[in-house]
């Protein structure tokens, strides 16, 4: 069992009947009334609420309250009830529903509040995670030591539909939501089951939640099927994050009506680059090829490198159903077994895809470079191109390694240039985050047969560097036209918060890595040294993930700020318009300025940037959820054996361990650790055995075994391999 460490001993115990002087009592009464703004109390109620036990202090309460009222510090009613006179603050913010007992409200940026507001469950007014709410902030901090408040109004619900498992009894039914931050089951009348059967996965829509009711009432709007089946679980994730199940018919019809042929007049208006050797390099299973690279040697000995991007906005016009749907989706979503595309297949895999041996309309950055990878000149504009070859990453890498095969000389030279671009970028302060990605091999029913860690080779970095070069060049081209006054879509990444980095630094020390971070430190240099140190080590994945979390989040905006992580003064997304709506925005604005247009009002573009950033987060969260689901399923099917792992988190309730072999994280519950009673040392993030003095802390290498997996909650329960009680695995 676990308990929180308490070093006060017997002296720290409260002693009933402690006598307070008048000043102490007055402060306590004032603080209590301020934290119960809007309520009135008489002396008897105050004595009870403040748990005053000794007779002397009890007798002093009413006189002290009268003195406070006479001094104008509190108000007094004719009935001898007293209340706070302080004015509360009213703010709006977003709910972070932490657990069933309380939530935090993240105030909007305009209020400039450094601390989130704690709201107890009884004062939430049934607000749920992600909802926008209006909050009354109490004038003084509460007993928690934090700013507290009360929800007055739910301004906007984030969602009213939840995925869960239906439980049917003879008289009523409930849906138990999968979402960890939804802490209430949803009551469903028998007539609103939509044919769902006991234990099936469903989507339930909340229809009513009266203030006096503990649970909301809802109706089932979609029956997903039997829990645990691959298709059902993937659909559950899609429904949980509000992802579309199918593409609407109207935009599909618009796409189908677009002719295949490129009009001769359109070709005449573009730079014709069809004779320049061009190829695409993508994952082996990709179908939407939105970027290609061309190469030729110039007569002056320099190289012409073209980065050619699918000209999606030629086909997707404003105020069409295609445009509306692309904007709403804002990004393609890549789940573990499928792609949910931003554009219909006719465009994404057909008209816009830079398939080999087909003429295609493109938007291009064409660079003149020397052998040192210096850009001597560049041109930006619309082109028509023709891809001569489609490479998978592995195939192109093989041609470089073997110095043989199609375009091996061009690939080799491009690789040398990319390495120079990459080195220059890191020399200028870019951060080398090489995140670990896992990929599953699935059978025809979606069952995971194997798990592999994706390996990033030179060919991946080659494509990355030329895409970065094109994105940066476009951003700087627009910025330099009018010193950043022209409305444009930038991809920005703010300088990290020093406090967060110091927290990360302390965490890294637990793994034996001493990194010093202060105001004067060159952050990128320190982080790059750490990234180099941890390559191939068990802690690599967790430290990379935590380093990224300690950074500011990259986002889209019309503000011409820089990109800290890439060490670019200006940056945008230009290279993936088939799968990202912001790239379509960039193409439209870029052509507008190339045509001599004036800067449009930024407000509408900023709104689109905010929407795109929100959709990007939704996509990332759903992709992670689908990977986590497969990790849980994989571990439920994996061999029953002891696994080596590394402790990635220590809490009062348990120890989080990442299994080194599979990169899956699970929890060892303190309640299951029966070899001793463990105290939680919060300051040092460790557990200490009361009798054996065994210390369990971050970074420890441990052996664990799987004892339970829960696909609904996407959790893995572990136990330490040396635990006295051997448990049988449960699913």
TrEMBL record:
Q: What class of enzyme is it?
A: hydrolase
InterPro entries recorded: CSD, CSD2, NA-bd_OB-fold, RNase_B_OB_dom, RNase_II/R, RNase_II/R_CS, RNase_II/RNase_R, RNase_R
Q: Name one GO cellular component term.
A: cytosol
The UniProt entry, under Pfam families, shows:
CSD2, OB_RNB, RNB, S1
Single GO MF annotation: exoribonuclease II activity
Reactions it catalyzes: Exonucleolytic cleavage in the 3'- to 5'-direction to yield nucleoside 5'-phosphates
Residue stretches making up the S1 motif domain: 640-721
Location in or out of the cell: Cytoplasm
Which SUPFAM superfamilies did the record assign? Nucleic acid-binding proteins (SSF50249)
Q: Which residues cross the membrane?
A: none
One GO process term, biological-process aspect: mRNA catabolic process
Q: Does the keyword Cytoplasm apply?
A: yes
- Look up the EC number in the record and give it: 3.1.13.1
* Coiled-coil zones: none
- Keywords assigned: Cytoplasm, Exonuclease, Hydrolase, Nuclease, RNA-binding
Domain of life assignment: Bacteria
Tell me the CDD domains matching this sequence.
S1_RNase_R
Q: What does this protein do?
A: 3'-5' exoribonuclease that releases 5'-nucleoside monophosphates and is involved in maturation of structured RNAs.
Q: Which PANTHER family match?
A: DIS3-LIKE EXONUCLEASE 2 (PTHR23355:SF9), RIBONUCLEASE (PTHR23355)
> What protein family is recorded?
Belongs to the RNR ribonuclease family. RNase R subfamily.
Name of the protein in its database record: Ribonuclease R
Q: Which organism is it from?
A: Cecembia calidifontis
The gene designation is rnr
């Amino acid at each position: 069992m676990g308990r929180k460490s308490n070093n006060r001993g017997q002296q720290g115990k409260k002693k009933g009947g402690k006598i307070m002087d008048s000043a102490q009592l007055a402060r306590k009464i004032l603080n209590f009334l301020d934290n119960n703004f809007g309520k009135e109390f008489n002396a008897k109620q105050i004595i009870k609420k403040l748990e005053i036990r000794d007779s002397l202090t009890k007798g002093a309460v009413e006189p002290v309250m009268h003195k406070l009222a006479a001094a104008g510090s509190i108000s007094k009613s004719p009935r001898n009830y007293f209340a706070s006179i302080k004015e509360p603050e009213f703010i709006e913010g977003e709910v972070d529903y932490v657990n069933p007992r309380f939530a935090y409200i993240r105030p909007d940026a305009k209020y400039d509040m450094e601390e989130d507001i704690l709201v107890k469950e009884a004062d939430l007014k049934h607000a749920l995670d992600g909802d926008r709410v209006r909050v009354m902030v109490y004038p003084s901090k509460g007993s928690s030591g934090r700013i507290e408040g009360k929800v007055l109004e739910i301004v906007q619900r984030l969602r009213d539909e939840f995925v869960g498992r239906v439980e049917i009894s003879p008289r009523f039914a409930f849906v138990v939501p999968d979402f960890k931050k939804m802490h209430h089951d949803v009551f469903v009348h028998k007539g609103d089951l939509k044919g769902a059967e006991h234990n099936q996965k469903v989507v339930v829509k909340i229809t009513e939640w009266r203030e006096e009711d503990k649970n909301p009432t809802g109706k089932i709007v979609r029956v997903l099927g039997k829990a645990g089946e691959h298709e059902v679980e993937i659909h559950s994730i899609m429904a949980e994050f509000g992802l579309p199940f199918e593409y609407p018919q109207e935009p599909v019809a618009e796409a189908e009506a677009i002719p295949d042929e490129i009009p001769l007049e359109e070709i005449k208006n573009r730079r014709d680059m069809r004779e320049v050797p061009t190829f695409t390099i993508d994952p082996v299973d990709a179908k939407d090829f939105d970027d290609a690279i061309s190469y030729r040697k110039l007569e002056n000995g320099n190289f012409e490198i073209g980065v050619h991007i699918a000209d999606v906005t030629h086909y997707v016009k404003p105020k069409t159903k295609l445009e509306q749907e692309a904007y709403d989706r804002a990004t393609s979503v890549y789940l573990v077994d499928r792609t949910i595309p931003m554009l219909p297949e006719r465009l994404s895999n057909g008209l816009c895809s830079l398939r080999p041996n087909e003429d295609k309309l493109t938007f291009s950055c064409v660079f003149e470079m020397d052998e040192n990878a210096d850009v001597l000149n560049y041109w930006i504009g619309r082109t028509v191109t023709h891809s001569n070859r489609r490479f998978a990453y592995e195939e192109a890498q093989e041609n470089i390694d073997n110095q043989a095969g199609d375009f091996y000389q061009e690939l080799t030279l491009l690789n040398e240039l990319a390495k120079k671009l990459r080195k220059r970028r890191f020399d200028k302060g870019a951060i080398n985050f090489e995140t670990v990605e896992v990929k599953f091999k699935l059978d025809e029913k979606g069952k995971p047969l194997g798990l592999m860690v994706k390996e990033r080779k030179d060919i991946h970095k080659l494509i990355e560097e030329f895409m970065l070069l094109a994105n940066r060049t476009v951003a700087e081209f627009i910025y330099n036209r009018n010193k950043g006054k022209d409305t444009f879509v930038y991809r920005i990444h703010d300088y990290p918060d020093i406090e967060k980095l110091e927290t990360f630094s302390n965490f890294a020390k637990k793994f034996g890595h001493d990194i010093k971070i202060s105001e004067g430190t060159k952050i990128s240099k320190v982080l790059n040294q750490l990234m180099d140190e941890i390559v191939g080590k068990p802690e690599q994945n967790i430290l990379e993930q935590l380093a990224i979390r300690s950074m500011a989040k990259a986002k889209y905006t019309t503000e011409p700020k820089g990109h800290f992580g890439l060490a670019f003064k200006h940056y945008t997304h230009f290279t993936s318009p088939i799968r990202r709506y912001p790239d379509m925005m960039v193409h439209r604005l870029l052509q507008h300025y190339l045509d001599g247009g004036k800067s449009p009002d930024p407000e509408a573009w900023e709104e689109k940037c905010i929407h795109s950033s929100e959709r990007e987060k939704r996509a990332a969260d759903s992709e992670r959820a689908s990977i986590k689901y497969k990790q849980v399923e994989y571990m439920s099917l994996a061999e029953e054996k002891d696994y080596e792992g590394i402790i990635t988190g220590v809490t009062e309730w348990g120890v989080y361990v990442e299994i080194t072999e599979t990169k899956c994280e699970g929890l060892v519950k303190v309640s299951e650790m029966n070899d001793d009673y463990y105290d939680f040392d919060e300051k040092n993030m460790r557990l200490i055995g009361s009798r054996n003095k065994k210390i369990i802390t971050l970074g420890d290498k441990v052996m664990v075994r799987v004892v339970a997996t829960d696909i609904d909650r996407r959790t893995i329960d572990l136990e330490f391999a040396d635990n006295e009680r051997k448990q049988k695995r449960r699913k």
